[in-house]
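queue> pop job 88
queue> type: inverse folding (structure -> sequence)
queue> payload:
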């Protein structure tokens, strides 16, 4: 029973410049580890081949070191790999692929589908019908020639392509690099392995996007997987198994706080996340001074525990209660300043007033703590 691993959108060489240097480096390294994980999974599941449906590299200009490291990471699986150029690493006349060949970096068991056509893997009885992108954007369906490609009797016909299935993706519908939604049926494919959509997605029983093996953006689209595909025989319906591969989990939350229970639930959700979390948090609404203190302590703990945590709080208004003000023990002129700042930031949503109130409240709490020692 032929079995293969379907993956795509490695985006090797991608830089994570919006993160702290240490976090960005860890996210880059995780992508190399993902390739090693794919090789290990191919061995564990006794796969006959690994198919990579485009965007192995994030750009044509990645460093030679990155090129060599990518192919070095595949070495644990000695079976055939078939790699297809996508829109980020299109098979131009001079490309990252031709540079890899000149460097002598491409192992003998790695097949580069740089030209449209069929790669027959005879021992595995697999025919790989490739539709490489030879430029970044096309406006015709490059998989259309699949219908005219012949494959040996009894071989499993697998299409390998990178683009947008028309009319079925959640966004960027009818974008460049179109693929007909009935391509598998029209071209007698046993399976169509797709790349470009970075999440795992089934189009029909024979057509799947594997998604990227390591998430790299804040989008809830089932990223961080590979697909193990089994086809009992030519013409049979494939069995597709989703295998988690991602090291880091990316979470983007937009929360509105109004009452104490909102803050409690937010902190409970944060505490439930694993250390591998990459979190982008934006808070709006209002919070008491006591709640702000609790929030800041929780964020400080989470920043040290997670791979990365970024929190935008400019839309979160401070709403001191009478108990908050009393706890500050701000008498006389200081008390008048606190009250003035509270009125300014509530009335005009003044960010400066909000920040000043938070700073003053913090100083007053520190003074109280020092005098009570």
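queue> result:
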């Amino acid at each position: 029973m032929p079995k293969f691993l379907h993956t795509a959108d490695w985006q090797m060489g991608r830089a994570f410049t919006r993160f702290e240097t240490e976090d960005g480096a860890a996210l880059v390294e995780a992508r190399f580890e993902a390739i090693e994980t794919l090789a290990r999974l191919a061995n564990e599941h006794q796969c006959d081949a690994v198919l990579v449906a485009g965007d192995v590299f994030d750009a044509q200009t990645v460093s030679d070191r990155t090129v060599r490291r990518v192919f070095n990471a595949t070495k644990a699986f000695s079976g055939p790999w078939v790699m297809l150029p996508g829109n980020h690493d299109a098979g131009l006349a001079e490309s990252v692929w031709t540079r890899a060949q000149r460097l002598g970096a491409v192992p003998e068991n790695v097949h580069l589908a740089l030209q449209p056509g069929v790669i027959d893997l005879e021992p595995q009885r697999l025919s790989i019908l490739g539709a490489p992108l030879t430029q970044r954007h096309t406006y015709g369906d490059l998989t259309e020639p699949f219908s005219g490609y012949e494959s040996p009797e009894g071989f499993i016909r697998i299409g390998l392509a990178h683009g947008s299935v028309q009319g079925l993706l959640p966004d960027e519908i009818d974008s460049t690099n179109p693929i007909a939604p009935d391509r598998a049926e029209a071209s007698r494919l046993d399976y169509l392995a797709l790349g470009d959509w970075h999440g795992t997605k089934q189009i029909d029983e024979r057509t799947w996007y594997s998604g990227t093996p390591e998430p790299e953006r804040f989008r809830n689209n089932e990223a961080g997987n590979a697909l193990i595909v089994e086809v009992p025989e030519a013409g049979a319906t494939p069995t597709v198994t989703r295998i988690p591969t991602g090291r880091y989990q990316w979470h983007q939350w937009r929360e509105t706080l109004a009452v104490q229970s909102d803050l409690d639930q937010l902190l409970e959700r944060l505490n439930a996340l694993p250390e591998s979390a990459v979190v982008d948090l934006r808070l709006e609404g209002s919070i008491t001074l006591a709640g702000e203190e609790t929030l800041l302590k929780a964020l400080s703990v989470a920043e040290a525990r997670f791979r990365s945590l970024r929190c935008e709080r400019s839309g979160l208004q401070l709403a001191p209660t009478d108990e908050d003000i009393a706890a500050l023990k701000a008498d006389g002129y200081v008390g008048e300043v606190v009250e003035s700042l509270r009125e300014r930031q509530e009335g005009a949503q003044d960010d400066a007033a909000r920040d000043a109130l938070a700073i003053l409240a913090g100083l007053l709490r520190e003074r109280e703590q020092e005098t009570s020692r």
